[in-house]
Amino acid sequence: MSTLIYTHAACFGHEPGPHHPESPARLQAVLDALRQPEFGDVVWRDAPLGTDEQVLRVHTPEYVEEVKALAPRQGYQLLDAGDTVMSPGTLQAVLRCVGAACAGVDDVVEGRARNVFCATRPCGHHAEANRAMGFCVFNQAAIAALHARAHHGLQRVAVIDFDVHHGNGTQHSFWNDPDLFYGSSHQAPFYPGTGSWQETGVANNIVNIPLSRGSGSAAFRAAMERDMLPALQDFAPELLIISAGFDAHQLDPLGGLELTDEDYHWITRELLRIADATAQGRVVSVLEGGYSLQGLASGTAAHVRALMGG
Ligand SMILES: [Zn+2]
Q1: Which parts of the chain register pLDDT below 50?
Q2: Model pTM?
Q3: Could you list which residues have their CB under 5 Å from ion ligand 1?
Q4: Which of 2, 20, 30 is nearest to 245 (CA)?
Q5: Catalytic residue selected from 8, 14, 125, 126
């Protein structure tokens, strides 16, 4: 079985404005990197459109209706107080993000793929049940987790998030359910301000690893080895979803954690090792942030190289 990659042209159609860091050029950089000869064994698929049923497993009906009603025919529509913007192509883009993540779950659970990477945008991990936040409209990682349970009857699903920002939305969705695990490494203090050590969920099913600016590889790996990986192993997920943001990369203009391509390769290998032990190797990774085009490209390449077993 191969590593499978979902993407869709509609994900270029989310255009938050010329000076917004979450640009269509990000996706182009990722696709250019993954179309190099070393990834020739990857199987490419067009992402299906996500459904209301999938979205509503995480988001409230009122919020979903609001997003649809606000979707502009031209120009921009702000969804939060800051920087979460809809353009005319945004609704289609975010529904492809949802569709990709859920199809990826179908593929790994039904044995059609070894693992899956979703080369889609925008990111999703800040989106909460009833609000958009931090460039995110729908939370495709959380939606994929709940899809695995509702559609495939899995019980224990984990999301591991190495984006430089804390995934407040995923934490919010998982907090009260002991069979959902959310683990995040992130820069702190930093946007969005959540993700302290003390935030542990209803059953220690939330593990937060806040890292100070400039932490670098050694601190990241030590914290993951000490606090994240053993907790994930103990949780024993039946499916592992990765919120793969690359804005902790040393080249990133927003993040300051100074991670390297080798760190992304390392953490991916470690997560696969646990997935092999507890989840029959089932891993679905979804692209989150990453705002240096070069760092995003090389970090993603290192991540997918590891997913392929390299
Ligand atoms: Zn981020």
Answers
A1: none
A2: 0.98
A3: 163, 165, 245, 247, 289
A4: 30
A5: 126
